[in-house]
C-alpha cells in the first residue's frame, strides 16, 4: 500500500521530474515528422514487448456468494478487496473528478504528457513538495498493473515502482503503446478499476462501498471528489484510517480542478465544498466467519461450499490454485441455500436446544433430483471465538457438524437405516407383503456373549413388544419400527446387501470402525439394519432424497451457478445424477415409508406409525422414518416429499455417552416436519406414485391386527444389542 512520502523521496521526485522534463523537451525539439515516426515506431515496439498483464489484465477481484435468489449476499472471498465495473456503471462526476485531479490533458495526450510533466515540475518546485505528479493516468495504470500482477515475481513487482529514469522511460513506452491500441475510455475504466483508494479498497467499486456504502454509479459530486483526491496518498488522506482534515483539503483541490477544466461550475464547486463529510463505512465480509450480520448460521453452509469448491478441477489443478481462484477470481456464485428454509431450520434447531446446550440438533435439507443443498442448520454459532472452559464445540465452532468430515464422523441414526435393508430386499425380489411373525426377541446366527444373548447368539429385542410383536410385513414393520422383523429380513437378503445399498445411496462410513466393518465383515454386520453406523444429517437426507427421486442419486451440490469475472458461465452448477435404484423399488419403499408418518399406503396396509404428527404438520403427501439409537443416545427423524428431503439428528457431538433421551424424539420429529412444510410452501402438491402390484405382492394377513388410536406417536428404541457387543463396537469406534 502507498505510504506518506519522505522529504528524501520528495526531493528525488523533483529531480526525477526535472530529468524527465529535460528528456521529453529534447525529444520535442526533433523535427515533427521524425518525432511522429520515432514515437509511433517506439510505441509499436513497446506493444510487442508488453507483459501479458497489460495486454489482458487479470487483476485479483473478490468473489461473491449469494443465496439461491441471486440477491441475498452470504459473504465474499478476497485477498484484495476489488471488483471490476464497466465505465457505464461509474458516475460521470467520478470520471471527471479523477481526470481533473490526476491528468487534465488525458483526452489529448498520447500516453505521456510533456506539458503535464513540466507543469508538475514547476508546481512542485514552488511548493517544495509533490502536490502534482508528472505521470498520466495511462502511466499510473501501467505502474499499478505491473506492481500487482500475480504472474510476476516479488522482485519484478517491486521493480515496477523503483524511482529510476530507466523504469520511468519504460513506463512511458508502455503507456504510449497502450494508447495506440486502447480507447481513452477503456484506459480510464481500467484505471478506475485498479487504483488504490485507501482503507483496503482497490478500484472505485470497492471504494464506493467502503466509504459510502453505495455503488459507484450513485456517487455524488462531493463523494466523487473526495475519492479522486485519495489516490495521490491513499492511506494518509483516508477519512477512515488517515487524516480527515487532509481528505477534505484534497476534496477541495479536486473540486477547484474540476471547475478550472469546465467539468463543473464554480458555484457547484463551492456548494460541494460546503457539504459536511458524511461517511457510511462498510467493511466487506471476507470468508465464512464473516457472513452477514445476524446470520452466522450460514457459515456452516459456506464452509461446505468452500470444501466442495476445493475439489473442482474447473477452478485449478491443485487445491492451492482453487483456493486462489476463489479469493482472486472475481466469481459470482449463486448457491443453493434457500434463506427461508435455512431460517426455519435454524429456528427449529435452536428451539429444541439453545446455543449453549452441549447437545445439538443438526438439520440438513436436500432437493431430490438435483442434490442441491437447501439448508444446513445447527444450534451453534459458526465462529472462531473462544468457548468457555471445558466446552469444545459450544456455543462456537467451525467443525462440520451437519455434513461431516475433519474430526466429525457423524452420529448413530437408529432405525432410519432399516430403509437400506428394505430396499435390498425389494431389489432381491421380495415384495412389500413379505411376512414374518416377529417375536419379542430374535435369536440370530451372529455369535455373541453376555447379557442380552440367546444361547450364545445375538438376540435383538423389540422396544415395545405389545405394539410391535406379531405378524408383520414391510409396511407395518417399517411403520412400527419392528427390530426383530428387520433383523430377520436382513438375514434373508444378507447384511452385506444392506451395507452396499447404503453406500450406493451416498452413506459414507467416516468412522474407522464402521469403514472396517463395511469393508471386511459386512456379511456379519447384523446390527447394521438398526443404525449402529455413524452418519450425518446431510448424508441421510440425500439418501432418502434418492428414494424420493424414484431411484436417482445426485451428488450433494451447494451451487446453482458460477459466473466468472468475464461473464462466462463455469460448467459446475449442473447436478451430477445417476440412476442407482429401479423406479418400482423406490416407489415400493416410499409406499412403506408412508406408514411411520401417519399416512396410508397405496394398498391400505399402514396400521400405526412412530411419527404420526408429521401428517398433520406437513398437510400433503409425505414419507419418512424415525430412529432411536441404543438407550436413546441419539434421536433421528428423516422425512421427504417429492420436492424435498430433510433429516435431523439430536446428539451430543462431543460425548457419545451423553444420552439425549426419548422425550426429545417428538421435538425432533416436529422440527423436521416444519422444515419440510416451509420448503414445499408455495409449491404444487405432488403425490407419490404407487408401486406395481407385483412388488406390493399379496398382502394377506393370517390374523387381524389392532389399530392404534389416530395420531398417537409411539416411542421406538433400537434396543437389543448385548452389552458385550456394545462395548466391542465402542472399542472399535474409539
TrEMBL record:
Reaction equation(s) it catalyzes: [GlcNAc-(1->4)-Mur2Ac(oyl-L-Ala-gamma-D-Glu-L-Lys-D-Ala-D-Ala)](n)-di-trans,octa-cis-undecaprenyl diphosphate + beta-D-GlcNAc-(1->4)-Mur2Ac(oyl-L-Ala-gamma-D-Glu-L-Lys-D-Ala-D-Ala)-di-trans,octa-cis-undecaprenyl diphosphate = [GlcNAc-(1->4)-Mur2Ac(oyl-L-Ala-gamma-D-Glu-L-Lys-D-Ala-D-Ala)](n+1)-di-trans,octa-cis-undecaprenyl diphosphate + di-trans,octa-cis-undecaprenyl diphosphate + H(+); Preferential cleavage: (Ac)2-L-Lys-D-Ala-|-D-Ala. Also transpeptidation of peptidyl-alanyl moieties that are N-acyl substituents of D-alanine
Alphabetic keyword roster: Carboxypeptidase, Cell shape, Cell wall biogenesis/degradation, Glycosyltransferase, Hydrolase, Multifunctional enzyme, Peptidoglycan synthesis, Protease, Transferase
GO molecular function, a single term: serine-type D-Ala-D-Ala carboxypeptidase activity
Stretch forming the signal peptide: none
Disordered: annotated span: 684-724
Residue span, Glycosyl transferase family domain: 73-258
Annotated source species: Micromonospora sicca
Family, similarity comment: In the C-terminal section; belongs to the transpeptidase family. In the N-terminal section; belongs to the glycosyltransferase 51 family.
UniProt domain Penicillin-binding protein transpeptidase: residue ranges: 364-654
Cellular component aspect of the GO annotation: outer membrane-bounded periplasmic space
Family annotation (SUPFAM superfamilies): beta-lactamase/transpeptidase-like, Lysozyme-like
Domain of life from the UniProt record: Bacteria
Example GO biological process: proteolysis
Name of the molecule in the record: Glycosyl transferase
Taxonomic path: Bacteria, Bacillati, Actinomycetota, Actinomycetes, Micromonosporales
A matching Pfam family: Transgly
Amino acid at each position: 500500500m502507498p505510504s506518506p512520502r519522505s522529504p528524501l523521496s520528495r526531493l528525488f521526485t523533483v529531480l526525477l521530474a526535472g530529468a524527465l522534463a529535460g528528456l521529453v523537451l529534447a525529444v520535442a525539439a526533433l523535427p515533427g515528422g521524425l518525432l511522429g515516426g520515432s514515437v509511433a515506431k517506439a510505441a509499436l515496439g513497446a506493444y510487442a514487448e508488453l507483459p501479458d498483464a497489460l495486454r489482458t489484465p487479470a487483476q485479483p477481484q473478490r468473489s461473491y456468494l449469494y443465496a439461491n435468489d441471486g440477491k441475498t449476499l452470504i459473504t465474499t472471498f478476497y485477498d484484495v478487496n476489488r471488483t471490476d465495473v464497466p465505465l457505464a456503471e461509474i458516475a460521470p462526476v467520478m470520471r471527471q473528478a479523477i481526470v481533473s485531479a490526476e491528468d487534465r490533458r488525458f483526452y489529448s495526450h498520447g500516453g505521456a504528457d510533456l506539458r503535464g510533466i513540466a507543469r508538475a515540475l514547476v508546481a512542485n518546485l514552488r511548493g517544495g513538495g509533490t502536490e502534482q505528479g508528472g505521470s498520466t493516468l495511462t502511466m499510473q495504470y501501467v505502474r499499478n498493473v505491473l506492481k500487482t500482477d500475480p504472474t510476476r515475481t516479488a522482485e519484478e513487482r517491486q521493480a515496477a515502482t523503483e524511482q529510476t529514469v530507466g523504469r520511468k522511460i519504460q513506463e512511458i513506452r508502455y503507456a504510449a503503446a497502450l494508447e495506440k491500441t486502447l480507447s481513452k475510455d477503456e484506459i480510464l475504466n481500467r484505471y478506475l478499476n485498479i487504483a488504490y483508494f485507501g482503507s483496503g479498497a482497490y478500484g472505485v467499486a470497492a471504494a464506493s462501498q467502503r466509504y459510502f456504502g453505495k455503488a459507484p454509479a450513485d456517487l455524488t459530486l462531493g463523494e466523487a471528489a473526495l475519492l479522486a483526491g485519495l489516490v495521490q496518498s491513499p492511506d494518509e488522506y483516508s477519512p477512515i484510517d488517515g487524516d480527515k482534515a487532509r481528505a477534505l483539503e484534497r476534496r477541495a483541490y479536486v473540486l477547484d480542478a474540476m471547475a478550472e477544466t469546465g467539468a463543473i461550475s464554480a458555484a457547484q464547486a463551492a456548494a460541494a465544498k460546503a457539504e459536511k463529510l458524511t461517511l457510511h463505512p462498510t467493511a466487506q465480509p471476507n470468508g465464512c466467519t464473516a457472513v452477514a450480520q445476524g446470520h452466522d448460521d450460514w457459515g456452516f453452509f459456506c464452509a461446505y461450499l468452500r470444501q466442495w469448491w476445493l475439489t473442482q478441477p474447473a477452478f485449478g489443478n491443485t487445491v492451492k490454485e482453487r483456493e486462489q481462484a476463489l479469493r482472486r477470481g472475481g466469481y459470482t456464485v449463486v448457491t443453493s441455500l434457500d434463506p427461508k428454509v435455512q431460517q426455519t431450520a435454524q429456528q427449529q434447531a435452536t428451539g429444541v436446544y439453545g446455543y449453549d446446550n452441549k447437545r445439538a440438533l443438526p438439520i440438513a435439507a436436500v432437493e431430490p433430483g438435483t442434490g442441491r443443498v437447501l439448508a444446513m442448520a445447527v444450534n451453534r454459532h459458526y465462529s472462531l471465538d473462544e468457548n468457555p472452559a471445558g466446552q469444545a464445540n459450544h456455543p462456537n465452532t467451525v467443525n462440520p457438524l451437519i455434513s461431516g468430515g475433519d474430526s466429525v464422523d457423524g452420529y448413530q441414526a437408529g432405525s432410519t437405516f432399516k430403509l437400506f435393508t428394505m430396499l435390498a430386499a425389494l431389489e432381491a425380489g421380495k415384495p412389500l407383503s413379505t411376512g414374518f411373525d416377529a417375536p419379542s426377541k430374535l435369536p440370530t446366527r451372529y455369535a455373541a456373549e453376555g447379557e442380552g444373548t440367546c444361547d450364545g447368539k445375538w438376540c435383538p429385542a423389540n422396544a415395545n413388544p405389545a405394539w410391535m410383536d406379531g405378524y408383520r410385513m414391510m409396511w407395518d414393520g417399517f411403520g412400527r419400527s419392528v427390530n426383530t422383523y428387520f433383523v430377520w429380513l436382513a438375514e434373508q437378503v444378507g447384511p452385506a446387501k444392506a451395507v452396499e445399498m447404503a453406500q450406493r445411496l451416498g452413506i459414507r462410513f467416516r468412522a474407522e470402525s464402521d469403514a472396517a466393518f463395511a469393508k471386511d465383515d459386512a456379511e456379519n454386520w447384523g446390527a447394521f439394519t438398526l443404525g449402529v453406523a455413524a452418519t450425518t444429517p446431510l448424508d441421510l437426507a440425500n439418501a432418502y432424497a434418492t428414494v424420493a427421486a424414484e431411484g436417482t442419486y445426485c451428488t450433494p451440490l451447494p451451487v446453482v451457478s458460477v459466473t466468472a469475472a468475464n461473464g462466462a458461465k463455469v460448467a459446475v452448477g449442473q447436478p451430477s445424477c445417476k440412476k442407482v435404484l429401479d423406479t418400482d423399488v423406490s416407489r415400493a419403499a416410499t409406499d412403506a415409508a408412508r406408514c411411520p408418518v401417519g399416512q396410508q399406503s397405496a394398498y391400505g396396509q399402514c396400521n400405526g406409525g412412530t411419527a404420526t404428527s408429521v401428517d398433520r404438520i406437513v398437510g400433503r403427501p409425505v414419507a419418512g422414518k424415525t430412529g432411536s439409537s441404543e438407550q436413546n443416545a441419539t434421536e433421528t427423524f428423516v422425512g421427504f416429499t417429492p420436492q424435498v428431503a430433510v433429516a435431523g439428528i439430536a446428539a451430543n457431538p462431543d460425548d457419545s455417552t451423553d444420552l439425549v433421551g426419548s422425550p426429545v424424539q417428538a421435538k425432533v420429529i416436529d422440527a423436521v416436519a416444519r422444515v419440510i412444510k416451509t420448503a414445499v410452501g408455495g409449491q404444487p402438491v405432488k403425490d407419490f406414485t404407487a408401486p406395481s402390484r407385483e412388488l406390493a405382492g399379496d398382502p394377506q394377513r393370517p390374523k387381524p391386527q389392532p389399530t392404534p388410536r389416530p395420531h398417537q406417536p409411539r416411542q421406538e428404541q433400537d434396543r437389543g444389542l448385548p452389552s458385550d457387543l456394545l462395548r466391542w463396537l465402542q472399542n472399535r469406534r474409539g
